Amino acid sequence: MLEFTLAVCAIVFGLRFITGFFTKASRIYRPTFLRQFYLLFWPLLCMSVGLPFLISFLYLGTLTAYELVLLTALAAVILGFSVPALILHAQYYAHNLHTTLVFDPKQNRLEVYENKELLSFAQRDLVRVEYVTCRSPRLFWSNYNFLRLHLASGQVIVLTSLLTNLAPVAEFLRNSHLETRQRWFCFV
């Protein structure tokens, strides 16, 4: 069964790679499976490798003090690296589940749709743009960042990295009172 699953995954990703050469780059961004897989790969891999060892907690009465200390340290490392990324992913998913971003810098086009309804604004309507990134580039949650667009009407539009890499969008909005901030955890 495992070999069959690996063969199907290899075929799917191989076809996706080959067809990627013949398709035009999309300018429409939504939360997709591949983007979510890209963001969640390392946290899920860490949990899938480490969680089977944590089943040893079920035998708590038979463990020595040394084994208990090692098991607790392993649990702290696994959960400490994976859980923040999973929480950020869930929060970003809740914010941008029904969001569509249309971004084409060559055409000077930036549109945001919420539930298939256009949130209309012009660049002159932007009072302030916050671009929040992770302080450390080596953590599992370092790819999670977000943009907050503060409009003159008081409305705030949140774009998360679940849609796409936001660095080009932030570069596009650099003349719109862009404020770049760094945090350890990029909670919206």
What does this structure look like?
By secondary structure, this protein is of the alpha+beta class. It has one domain (26-188). Helix content is 42%, strand content 23%. It contains four helices and eight strands, in the order H-E-H-H-E-E-E-E-E-E-H-E. It has helices spanning 2-20, 33-54, 65-96, 167-172; strands at 28-29, 99-104, 109-114, 117-119, 126-134, 146-151, 156-160, 178-183. The protein has a four-stranded antiparallel sheet, with no helix packed on it. The protein has a four-stranded mixed sheet with strand order 7-6-5-8. Helix 2 runs antiparallel to helix 3. The chain is globular.
- How would the global form be characterised? globular
| Low-pLDDT stretches | none
Mean pLDDT over all positions:
85
Fraction of residues in H or I helices: 40-55%
Derived structural class: alpha+beta
Strand order of the largest sheet: 1-2-3-4
Protein name: PH domain-containing protein
Keywords: Membrane, Transmembrane, Transmembrane helix
Give a nutshell description of this structure.
The protein has 188 residues and is of the alpha+beta class. The chain has helices at residues 2-20, 33-54, 65-96, 167-172; strands at residues 28-29, 99-104, 109-114, 117-119, 126-134, 146-151, 156-160, 178-183. The protein has one domain.
